[in-house]
Hints:
Shape: elongated
Helix content: 10-25%
Distance between the termini: 50 Å
Radius of gyration: 19 Å
Strand content: 35-45%
Structural class: alpha+beta
Number of helices: 3
Mean pLDDT: 93
Amino acid sequence: MAQKWKTLNSEIILRTPGVDVLRDCVELQNGNTIDYYVFEIREWASIVPITGEGKLVLVEQYRHACGGITLEFPAGLVDSRDPSPLDTAKRELLEETGYTSEDWTYLGTFQLGPSKIRNAFHLYCARNCQPAAAQNLDDTEDIRVLTVTVEEFQQLFDEGKISDVDSALGWLLCRSRGLLTVHQPS
């Protein structure tokens, strides 16, 4: 059975508003000690938005780390404005796309890369989304909003044009749970 490493000390070697880099001195199961580097990233919420007509709402934006334009579901960092990740999801959906929803399903909380990254992201499905306001973007955001059918999204996914992990996972979870059908509120 796997055993937990013992952390002898931990030091933040870089602190930024969104990411900290830690150097942990850890003792392994065999008694050896090593320095192990961990990225600590703030939590975020990601949303699979589906309109009342069954279309998926996507955002297209430049992502500097990968050096390219991505097509993904809206998402944003949890911060002090939000009492919960669901509140972050609702705020980010409105800010990035101008859409709102009253029909939310929690899909789960996941780790992006547990071997080197300490974080969590929260996935939600928002159904019966409707336009409610203009986008309210941060200074670093330049986002184009698109809506696509389930079939069009599947083609984008199959062609590798949806490469964002939380978008891919959200898509697969919504498909497996039957959430992509048009739903009329009762």
